[in-house]
Write a structure and sequence with these properties.
The chain is α/β, with parallel strands linked by helices. Helices cover 39% and strands 21% of the residues. The strands form three sheets. A seven-stranded parallel sheet has the order 8-9-7-6-12-13-14, sandwiched between helices. The protein has a five-stranded parallel sheet with strand order 2-1-3-4-5, with helices on both faces. A two-stranded antiparallel sheet has the order 10-11. Residues 158-351 form the CheB-type methylesterase domain.
């Protein structure tokens, strides 16, 4: 059975190019193409697609309004097609919060040629979306409502937060998983380094969004920063993020070397640097994502003495990266996303002081 794809985009050129890309694949087919959400609504009823590609900015009905209604009334895998602009990245972050599985960016120039070059990327994201676990969107919070404080209690061992590090890797579905994890981090948590597969420009919007929501400080890593407790540093979309030492301090390093496992930033690069620099002082966390990036790096972390956690299959959007890490024996604990922050902090409280003697 071929994956049935419905394209929603106000650009006739984009619809044509996307149709050419998708229909060239043996395992997928375009069952409809809509210029706006109103037409798309009828085509969904007629064609019952497996995956929807949705333009972020469209006439007649905003793409976000349509996505919110869709995920509430008929949840289905959606891949956003976004412009690589500051506004486009902010809207895309909101789309992922609303339940979109993933996104792909439109080329800035020579759209037809650029989109054809993106064939592998677009079709891979559609294949991933077709296998993703999609949930109904939660009810919208009333405007001005106060969000409850979901952060966990402060750590009992004050030394733990200054010496230990939490190292996180994620991909498809990771933006929401990371948000849920960080929302539970208390202000005295250890420094956190994060690699999330995401293009340049979008990581900055992602970090700003998290910083506005979390009790801890969240930023896009700039390189050579001292890693501080109560702070999280996200790999920028243009570079690998590495952990390094400067005297007695941990610092961030950026590297624009070639992609690893087809990704830059790569989770393996971050995890391997943590294994080399932090040893037992590192706690690894691998979350939802397609592929195997991070598995070997996490195994290296474990061999260096770290304790590693993986998100379980039931709570993953895509159980790819955690499954690979579990399969190679890199993990010590597997659990649902909702419990991971508490388990990580409990481990740090219980074992932190012993690990300081490394």
């Amino acid at each position: 059975m071929k994956t049935k794809v419905l394209i929603v985009d106000d650009s006739a050129l984009i619809r044509s190019v996307m149709k050419e890309i998708i229909n060239s694949q043996p395992d997928m087919e375009v069952v409809g193409a809509a210029p706006d959400p109103l037409v798309a609504r009828e085509l969904i009823k007629q064609t019952n697609p497996d995956v929807l590609t949705l333009d972020v900015e469209m006439p007649k009905m905003d793409g976000l309004d349509f996505l919110e209604k869709l995920m509430r009334l008929r949840p289905m895998p959606v891949v956003m097609v976004s412009s690589l602009t500051e506004r486009g990245s902010d809207i895309t972050m909101r789309a992922l919060e609303l339940g979109a599985v993933d996104f792909v960016t439109k080329p800035k120039i020579s759209i037809q040629h650029g989109m054809l070059e993106y064939t592998e990327l677009i079709t891979e994201k559609i294949r991933t979306a077709a296998r993703a676990r999609v949930k109904a969107a939660p009810p919208r919070q009333p405007a001005g409502s106060v969000q409850p404080d979901t952060s966990l209690p402060m750590l009992r061992n004050p030394l733990t937060s200054s010496e230990k590090l939490i190292i996180i890797g994620a991909s498809t579905g990771g933006t929401e998983a990371i948000k849920e994890f960080l929302l539970q981090m208390p202000s005295d948590c250890p420094g956190i380094l994060i690699t999330q597969h995401m293009p340049e420009g979008f990581t900055r919007s992602f970090a700003k969004r998290l910083d506005s929501l979390c009790k801890i400080s969240v930023c896009e890593a700039a390189g050579d920063e001292r890693i501080l407790p109560g702070h999280a540093y996200i790999a920028p979309g243009h570079s690998h993020l590495l952990l390094a030492r400067s005297g007695a301090n941990y610092v961030t390093r950026l590297d624009q070397g070639p992609p690893v496992n087809r990704h830059r930033p790569s989770v393996d690069v971050l995890f391997r640097s943590a294994a080399e620099c932090a040893g037992k002082n590192a706690v690894g966390v691998i979350m939802t994502g397609m592929g195997k990036d991070g598995a070997q790096g996490m195994l290296q972390m474990k061999h260096s003495g770290s304790y590693n956690f993986a998100q379980d299959e039931a709570s993953c959007v895509v159980f790819g990266m955690p499954r690979e890490a579990i399969a190679v024996g890199a993990t010590d604990d597997v659990g649902p996303l909702s419990e991971l922050p508490g388990r990580v902090l409990q481990y740090l409280t219980t074992h932190g002081s012993r690990a300081l003697r490394v």
